[in-house]
């Protein structure tokens, strides 16, 4: 995309917003592709017929929502971080609607069940093999951080082999939230994680077996049963019980999201 001369001048009302939407549209359409460097601020100012500060405000928002990366002295480069866009959007809805962990993780159960149904149809033998390997790695609980990372890898692999990019992206973020919150509620110790996931290896392997049998209905049902057990076990954790009320758990989730998902940063990884 080339910006030259006195191009697309904008109306005077909410100028920065109009420039933001124009640049955003070009990034999402592919006219400005990932890795491409935006023109210098002065070039964009001439192109849109506005001042430098107006351009900086638009670029600042594009940077905050993960569409460009701006570094001092290096200019702005298109990054289009899908993960960041999804993280900010979902976190905002959860916090604004005062949703609790049960609501969010119930949605993850539905999404992962759908991912399993798709994977049973579309995953290749080698992809299912990688999913089995992820399940086997999660069989042993040595540290809280290790099992959180292994379980996350297991479910992220399931999401990836669904071959649905939107589904996979949403599952990745909510899985990150689930693992992060579980680490907090478990106290970060092995005993807490054994309380959550102990004895569930066979059920994870049953999901693998369902995919290998190319049985979508069975795969989806196995995932739903697994999540029901995990959600119930998380609720029974001592720290979850100490919260004492749904309102307290809502605040806990909101606080976790506030600490880990910000406009200036991508979600910090759990585990």
Report on the architecture of this protein.
The structure is a single chain. The chain is mainly alpha-helical. It has two domains: 15-80, Arc Repressor Mutant, subunit A (Orthogonal Bundle), CATH 1.10.10.10; 84-260, GntR ligand-binding domain-like (Four Helix Bundle (Hemerythrin (Met), subunit A), Up-down Bundle), CATH 1.20.120. 69% of the residues lie in helices and 3% in strands. The protein contains 13 helices and two strands; from the N terminus they run αααββαααααααααα. The protein has helices at 15-29, 41-48, 52-64, 82-96, 101-122, 125-137, 144-160, 165-186, 190-197, 201-212, 216-236, 238-243, 246-260, and strands at 68-71, 75-78. A two-stranded antiparallel ribbon has the order 1-2. It is globular. The two termini are 40 Å apart. The mean pLDDT is 88.
The CATH topology of the largest domain corresponds to Four Helix Bundle (Hemerythrin (Met), subunit A)
Number of domains: 2
- The count of strands amounts to 2
| CATH architectural type of the largest domain | Up-down Bundle
Bin the helical content. Answer: 55-70%
Query: From N to C, what is the helix and strand string?
Result: HHHEEHHHHHHHHHH
Distance between the termini: 40 Å
Low-confidence stretches: none
Q: Which geometry do the CA atoms define?
A: globular
């Amino acid at each position: 995309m080339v910006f030259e001369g006195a191009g697309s001048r904008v109306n005077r009302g909410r100028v920065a917003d109009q420039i933001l939407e124009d640049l955003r549209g070009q990034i999402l359409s592919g006219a400005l592709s990932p890795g491409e460097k935006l023109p210098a601020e002065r070039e964009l100012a001439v192109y849109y017929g506005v001042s430098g500060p107006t351009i900086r405000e638009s670029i600042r928002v594009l940077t905050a929502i993960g569409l460009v990366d701006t570094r001092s002295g290096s200019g702005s480069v298109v990054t289009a971080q899908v993960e960041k866009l999804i993280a900010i959007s979902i976190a905002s809805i959860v916090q604004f609607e005062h949703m609790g962990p049960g609501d969010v993780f119930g949605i993850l159960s539905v999404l992962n069940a759908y991912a399993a149904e798709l994977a049973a149809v579309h995953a290749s033998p080698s992809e299912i093999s990688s999913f089995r390997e992820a399940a086997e790695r999660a069989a042993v609980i040595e540290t809280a951080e290790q099992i959180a990372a292994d379980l996350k890898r297991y479910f992220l692999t399931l999401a990836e082999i669904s071959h649905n990019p939107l589904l996979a992206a949403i599952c990745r973020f909510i899985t990150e939230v689930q693992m992060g919150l579980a680490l907090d509620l478990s106290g970060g110790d092995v005993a807490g994680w054994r309380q959550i996931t102990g004895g569930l290896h066979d059920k994870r392997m049953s999901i693998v077996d369902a995919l290998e049998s190319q049985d979508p209905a069975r795969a989806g049902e196995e995932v739903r049963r697994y999540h029901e057990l995990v959600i119930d076990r998380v609720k029974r954790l001592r720290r979850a019980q100490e919260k004492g009320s749904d309102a307290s758990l809502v605040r806990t989730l909101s606080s976790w999201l506030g600490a880990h998902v910000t406009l200036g940063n991508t979600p910090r990884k759990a585990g």
